[in-house]
Amino acid sequence: MMSPSLTDQMPILSVCVQIAFGMVMVGVILAMFRLIKGPSLPDRVVALDTMTVLIVSFCGLFALDTGSTAYLDVAVVLALIGFLATVALARFVERKARRPEADHLNTAGDDHDT
């Protein structure tokens, strides 16, 4: 039989965890709005990273609420995947920012064709 969770033993902690769940969900909704609205790609990358952090915190809160440590493993894996995705998207944005200069150099010699 599973031992009672920490929130079962401390009612005030249960209330705090429920309030934190609500705050995390509001944060996810706001970050989703920023992800959809944009206006630029870096804004969307930051919104996606924010959502990842909020989902990791949701997993931590759920582990605290239920007393199951399996959700902490999920949170760690999600954090690692979120970090790698943020680094990959940041490199993509950086290369995209450099690309117009390279395109300009390649098309400079093509002016004599017209």
Automatic annotation (TrEMBL):
Top-level division of the source organism's lineage: Bacteria
Membrane topology listed for this record: Multi-pass membrane protein
UniProt-recorded Gene Ontology molecular function terms: sodium:proton antiporter activity
Keywords: Cell membrane, Membrane, Transmembrane, Transmembrane helix, Transport
Segments crossing the lipid bilayer: 12-33, 45-64, 70-90
InterPro entries associated with the record: MrpF/PhaF-like
Gene Ontology, cellular component aspect: plasma membrane
Subcellular location: Cell membrane
Main location: membrane
PANTHER family: NA(+)/H(+) ANTIPORTER SUBUNIT F1, NA(+)_H(+) ANTIPORTER SUBUNIT F
Family: Belongs to the CPA3 antiporters (TC 2.A.63) subunit F family.
Protein name listed in UniProt: Multisubunit sodium/proton antiporter, MrpF subunit
Organism in which the protein naturally occurs: Jannaschia pohangensis
